[in-house]
Design a protein that fits this description.
The protein is of the alpha+beta class and about 130 residues long. It is built from 2 helices and 6 strands; from the N terminus they run ββββββαα. The termini are close together.
Length: about 130
């Protein structure tokens, strides 16, 4: 597998009805990992998407195969919602909890996929590649 991501590129980590949009900091080709900085966690429901600012969350060093390039059309409107708001003076504990739960869920699914060859599956057209 080749990781064709570039520093500064926005990529998405998709699981179930949520997407974690991140910025690529560096690609570690020898280990097939991506160092990414979280930007937004988007949870899709029947109504409009719930967008949570994740810019204060910890960076991730994550398997590159779990990411997909984010499309400009999906990112621009979501980022504009967050960037239009005033920056927070202290981290949001609810956002941190959401981030930790999302990462835990996708890591569990990834681990099961590695052992059971099932892969990590997202929602609908956003399936992650089999591992």
């Amino acid at each position: 597998m080749s990781l064709n991501f570039q520093p500064g590129q926005i990529v998405s980590l998709d699981y179930s009805d949520s997407n974690l949009l991140t910025e690529v900091i560096q690609v570690v080709v020898s280990r097939q990992l991506c160092w990414v900085r979280p930007l937004l966690l988007v949870s899709f429901s029947e109504e409009s998407p719930l967008v949570t600012d994740m810019r204060d969350a910890s960076d991730l060093l994550w398997p590159g195969q779990l990411f997909r390039p984010a499309l400009d059309t999906e990112v621009i409107s979501l980022l504009s919602q967050v960037l239009a708001k005033e920056p927070k003076t202290e981290p949001d504990s609810a956002a941190k909890l959401q981030f930790n739960q999302f990462i835990h869920q996708i890591w569990q699914a990834y681990q099961q996929g590695v052992g059971g060859e099932a892969g990590v599956q997202g929602a609908g057209e956003k399936n992650l590649p089999s591992i």
